[in-house]
Amino acid sequence: MSESYEQQLTLRASPESIFEAFTTTDGVAGWWSSDVTGSFRAGEAFQVGFGDMDRWTLRMGKTKMPSRVEWGVIDLQRKGDLVGSKIVVTIEPVANDHSRLTFRHEGLTPDLECYDECKSGWDYFMPSIRDLVEKGEGKPWAQRRK
Fold first, then answer.
1. pTM above 0.90, yes or no
2. Residues in contact with 15: Cβ distance below 8 Å, sequence separation at least 6, in sequence order
3. What does the buried/exposed string (b/e) look like for 19-40 if buried means 16 or more CB atoms within 10 Å of the residue's CB?
4. 49-67 residues labelled b (16+ CB within 10 A) or e (exposed)
5. Cβ–Cβ contacts within 10 Å for residue 86, how many?
6. Distance (Å, rounded) from C-alpha 142 to C-alpha 7?
7. pLDDT in tens, the chain (146 residues)
8. The domain 5-138 is classified under which CATH number: 3.60.60.10, 3.30.530.20, 3.40.50.10580, 3.40.50.1820?
9. Domain boundaries defined on the chain
C-alpha cells in the first residue's frame, strides 16, 4: 500500500487556535479558501470552493477538542479519485508555547492521478496554516491568485 500524504509542522500557537483553524468557517477561510460554506458540526457537510476550478464537499468527522479533527471527502467537482479519502489533523502541545500539527490526507497516495496536483496544493497551504495561527493572516486560495 502506498503512503498517504502527511506533513508535520511545529507552530508557535496554542492547540486551541490550531483546532479552530480546522473547525470553523473563519478558520478554514483563513488558510485554505475564502469560499467556505456549510456546517462544521459533527456529521454535517461543508464546502470549500476554488472558483470555477474545483469545489470540495467534506463531512465533519470525529473531533476531540483541541487535539484531533477528521474530515471525510464526500464529493469533488474534479479529482473524483479522492472521494472516500479522509483528512486527519492531530494537534499536540510541545515546549515553549508551541504545538505540533500533523496533517494527514489518508488515501492521497502517489498512485492516484491527482497526486502531484493535490500534493502541490497541500504543500502550499501548510505555510498558509502557519501564517494564520502565528501571524493572524494566512494565504487562502482567493489571495493566492493576487
1. yes
2. 66, 67, 91, 92, 93, 99
3. bbbbbeeebbbbbbbebbebeb
4. bbeeebbbbbbbeebeebb
5. 18
6. 23
7. 469 999 999 999 999 999 999 999 999 999 999 999 999 999 999 999 998 888 999 999 999 999 999 999 999 988 788 999 999 999 999 988 999 999 999 999 999 999 999 999 999 999 999 999 999 999 999 755 54
8. 3.30.530.20
9. 5-138
At position 53, the amino acid (one-letter code) is M
